[in-house]
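User: Please predict structures.

Assistant: First:
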Amino acid sequence: MIFDPNGGLLEFYQLKNRRYELKQPDENGRHWIDSMGLFLGTWQGTKEARTGYWLRWWNGAGNLLFWAVEQIEQERQADTLGTRLIVASGYAADGLRNLMVTLEKQQKNALPSWLSSHPGGNQRVSDLENLITRNSYNRYAYEGVGRHGEIQARVKKLLQKKKAREEKK
C-alpha cells in the first residue's frame, strides 16, 4: 500500500502469483480487504490539528468506522442525553451514574483506557457526576413511588368496595 496524506493518493497492491498487482478501488474510492471484512480508503478532514487526507476504515455496509476518540465522544453524548431523559421523566438523576458505578465494580479485565472505544468507568462516572452537579439535577427523586402510591390507593378503594358488596349479600 502506498498512501500520500498530502494529495490523498492511495495505491493498494495485492500479492498474486508471487507478484504484487495494483488493485483498483470501488466506486467510492475504497479497497475491500477480504481477510478483514473491511474497506480501506481515504477520508478528508481535520484531526489532531491537521487538515488533509487520512486513511480510514469502513464496514461491509459502507459505514465509516469511528476513531476511538470519536466513539468516546459519542458515548459521552449518549450518557448526557440519557441523564436528561431520566430527569425529564421524573426519576433520580443519578440512576445512570449509579449503574456505571455498579458496572465499574464488576469489571475485572477491562481494557486500558487508551485502547478502549468507551470512556473508562471512572471517567464516565466522573463525567456524569459533573453533569448532575453542574445542572443541579434532583438526585433524590422517588423513582415511581408517587405513581405506585396512587395505584395502591385505587386498589385499596376497589377492595373496600368489593368487601362492602360482599357484606351486603
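Second:
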Amino acid sequence: METAIWIIIAAAAAIIGYVAAAVISKKNASSRANSILEDANREAEVIKEKRILQAKEEEMKILGEAERNAGQRMQKAQAAEARNKQGITDGLEPLNARQSVLSARNSLMT
C-alpha cells in the first residue's frame, strides 16, 4: 500500500512539474516574443529614420541642382538680353547718323 502512495505522489509530482514547466515555458515564450517584437520595432524605426534622411538628402540634391539650372538659365537670359540691347543700340547709331544727315539736308533746302 505504501508503494501505491509513493506512486500516486510521484505521479502527482510529475503532473505538477509538467504543468509548472508548461506555465514557465509559456511565460518565457511570451517574454521572448515581446523581446523580439521590441527589437523588430526598434530596427524598423532605425530603418524608417534612415529612409527619411536619405529622402531629405535626395531632396536637397534635387533642389541644389534645380537652383544651379535656374541660375544658368538666368545668366543665359541676361546675356541674351545684353546682346539684344547692344544689337539695338548698334543698329540705332547708323540710323541716328543718317537721320542727322537728312535733317541737315532738309534744313539746307529750306
